[in-house]
Task: inverse folding
């Protein structure tokens, strides 16, 4: 709407100098994704009829999972008293996305992002984040793109070739509230891409997060890919004086607007946890109360909706 040709060519030139838009979810997707995050200053969690708990092996505690339409993972909502987060890092193995059974995509693509960031959960006016998108088309073509973003500015692509199975580290560092850097390192080759950033939207240093996101493209959430598992390891949230892992984080799962919970969490330790995509079959089992030691209770209506999908999928020759 507001993209004047000057702005657009500036963006294009900048992008040309910095990064080659590499995949379908490259520059065009980035521009559209500009509005992909925050609305108001509310916590990302939504009201849910589902209720589930996650065992935290680091503390021995069991805590309630919060649900979000678009974020799954771990988010620390406040730093130690009197401090602010200035660096967040985590490592993942690049997953291979696939199209979920029985779920339609309006544009033919399924995708998700995995990223680390400072702010954007309860502190909502800025996020410094970096990560990668993984996309699969209905024909099965898989593509990846690595990006950095200081929301509300655009996300931009890093020039980095990514393949399934690569081990990558992601870092965001804030030098001040309005300057910092985003870095992605390929631990397979040691190749590192980094970008210094400044913004007029100051960070609060209030939140640290490690997220698998169903991101927005255009004005709606992209059809969520079956990403199998994304395991975050070496999770560190640092302040100038101390650092911590994910054991005090709020654990979030994605529940879509049809009340289907699409992810599951396994908190492995203070520095690592796994986000799993839950298939329609697993959703039905959870709703039927057969989750692995977890309290997974959908309402009767939701169970029926899941069963309907199962019937549709199996009668459609799907992979059930
Ligand atoms: C992400 O989810 C939150 C609530 O869970 C919602 O307020 C926000 O609008 C969602 N973002 C998008 C882009 O849908
Ligand atoms: C970013 O912070 C991490 C600590 O989380 C540190 O190891 C790394 O050196 C920092 N990188 C930069 C560029 O400041
Ligand atoms: C990492 O390096 C490997 C080996 O060269 C390469 O195949 C892969 O695409 C690289 N991945 C990233 C994220 O740079
Ligand atoms: C995901 O991890 C679980 C173990 O936590 C494993 O049982 C499952 O096979 C994995 N799925 C994929 C697609 O790798
Ligand atoms: C929610 O997820 C279920 C199961 O994956 C899917 O069938 C349904 O279409 C999704 N609903 C929306 C609104 O995306």
Result:
């Amino acid at each position: 709407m507001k993209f004047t040709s000057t702005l657009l060519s500036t963006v294009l030139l900048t992008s040309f100098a910095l990064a080659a838009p590499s995949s379908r979810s490259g520059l065009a997707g980035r521009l559209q994704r500009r509005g992909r995050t925050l609305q108001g200053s509310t916590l990302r969690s939504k009201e849910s009829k589902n209720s589930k708990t996650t065992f935290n092996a680091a503390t021995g505690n069991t805590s309630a999972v919060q649900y979000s339409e678009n974020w799954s993972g771990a988010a620390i909502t406040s730093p130690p008293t009197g401090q602010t987060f200035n660096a967040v890092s985590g490592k993942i193995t690049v997953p291979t996305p696939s199209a979920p059974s029985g779920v339609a995509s309006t544009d033919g693509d399924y995708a998700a992002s995995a990223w680390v960031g400072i702010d954007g959960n309860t502190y909502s006016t800025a996020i410094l984040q970096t990560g990668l998108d993984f996309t699969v088309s209905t024909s099965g073509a898989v593509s990846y793109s690595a990006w950095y973003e200081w929301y509300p500015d655009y996300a931009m692509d890093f020039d980095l070739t990514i393949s399934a199975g690569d081990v990558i580290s992601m870092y965001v560092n804030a030098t001040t509230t309005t300057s910092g850097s985003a870095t992605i390192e390929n631990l397979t080759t040691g190749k590192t891409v980094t970008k210094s950033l400044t913004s007029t939207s100051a960070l609060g240093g209030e939140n640290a997060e490690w997220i698998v996101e169903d991101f927005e493209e255009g004005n709606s959430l992209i059809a969520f890919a079956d990403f199998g598992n994304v395991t975050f390891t070496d999770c560190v949230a640092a302040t100038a004086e101390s650092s911590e892992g994910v054991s005090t984080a709020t654990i979030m799962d994605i529940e879509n607007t049809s009340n289907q919970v699409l992810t599951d969490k396994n908190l492995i330790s203070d520095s690592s946890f796994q986000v799993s995509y839950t298939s329609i079959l697993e959703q039905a089992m959870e709703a039927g109360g057969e989750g692995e030691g977890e309290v997974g209770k959908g309402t009767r209506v939701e169970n029926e909706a899941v069963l309907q999908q199962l019937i549709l999928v199996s009668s459609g020759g799907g992979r059930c």
User: Anything to note?
Assistant: The first strand starts at residue 53 and ends at 56. The chain has one domain: 25-277. The radius of gyration is 19 Å.
